[in-house]
Specification:
The protein is of the alpha+beta class. It is built from six helices and five strands, in the order H-E-H-H-E-H-E-E-E-H-H. The chain has one domain. A five-stranded antiparallel sheet has the order 1-2-3-4-5. Bound molecules: heme C (HEC). This is Cytochrome P460 domain-containing protein.
Length: 174
């Protein structure tokens, strides 16, 4: 009997570890559609020729996501959890919970950054809230981490965008 149990334990552990390879770590943040927009940008089409002084960080980002919308690029909207707007302005430090989303508008890919224990975690979902991190290698949580956690001069505490300040100005006048 004892032998039997350990066999099943090994089986289920193997199952868990193969599953987690393409699973989002951040959870789907319900209600993100109503979060304030801090930046409207684009993911660039695959035929973009970048200026020669473009940073390695930006080159890697453009390369990684040039497959989006069959290489034609897409508008990208960045929204921030209203409870974390002030934290986002200074790139943290962040309290726990969902922090920001990047929404690739054409295909409806939702990039999610959440914080847990002060550290960033990542996930990819569609508009229905289904985990799509298995759809493409660049949507896996580990891939996000490699870029967001490597370029520490740009991505501080896991957020990378320079927020557009006008939203904060109109915010404070309310
Ligand atoms: C090769 C680099 C790179 C990879 C890989 C990457 N990102 Fe990003 N990410 C960026 C850059 C650059 C920005 C800022 C874009 C801008 O300012 O226009 C950004 C912005 C974001 C934002 C908006 C909030 C912010 O300011 O950071 C979220 C959310 C996000 N990424 C989540 C993810 C998730 C989830 C993944 C993996 C599925 C991922 N990223 C993979 C470079 C990367």
């Amino acid at each position: 009997m004892k032998h039997c149990y350990s066999f099943y334990l090994i089986l289920s552990l193997a199952f868990v570890s193969t599953q987690s390879a393409s699973e989002s770590i951040a959870s789907y943040p319900e209600g993100w559609e109503n979060w304030p927009i801090v930046k409207e940008t684009v993911s660039l089409p695959s035929n973009t020729i970048l200026p020669s002084d473009t940073t390695l960080f930006i080159q890697e980002t453009v390369d990684a996501y040039s497959w989006i919308n069959n290489g034609e690029g897409s508008p990208l909207t960045i929204r921030v959890n209203p409870d974390k707007l002030e934290q986002y302005k200074t790139h943290g430090p962040y309290t726990d919970g969902p922090t920001a989303v990047g929404v690739s508008e054409v295909q409806g890919i939702i990039w999610v950054t959440e914080h847990f224990g002060g550290l960033p975690i990542y996930g990819s979902y569609n508009r229905e809230g289904q985990d799509i991190s298995g759809m493409h290698p660049t949507l896996e949580a580990e891939f996000c981490q490699r870029c967001h956690d490597t370029y520490k001069d740009v991505c501080i505490n896991g957020t990378c965008a320079e927020p557009v300040l006008s939203i904060y100005q109109s915010d404070s006048s309310n």
